[in-house]
Design goal:
The protein is an alpha+beta fold. A hairpin with a 7-residue loop joins strand 3 and strand 4. The longest helix is centred in the N-terminal third of the chain and has 12 residues.
Length: about 80
């Protein structure tokens, strides 16, 4: 069974912001996960779980509004949408 996937406006805006700034973000956060909310990085780290937890604590927003992205290659974006 496939569950419905909700993609929020805030999530899309975050992905677009990451795309625009991916070179700068890659240089600053290479090899780490980042969480983006309202066009800024709100958490970063090696563990997706710690980044997710910190982002939730700082923003008080649901995860469907916060892209979690692994900054490995400036030409690729790996993201998680819970």
């Amino acid at each position: 069974m496939v569950k419905n996937l909700e993609i929020t406006k805030e999530f899309i805006e975050g992905i677009n912001w990451i795309q625009i700034h991916r070179s700068k973000l890659h240089k600053q956060y290479q090899g780490r996960w980042i969480a983006v909310y309202r066009n800024k990085v709100v958490a970063a780290g090696k563990s997706i779980n710690s980044v997710e937890k910190k982002a939730l604590e700082l923003t008080m927003a649901p995860l469907i509004k916060i892209p979690l992205v692994f900054m490995e290659d400036p030409h690729c974006i790996y993201l998680v949408n819970n």
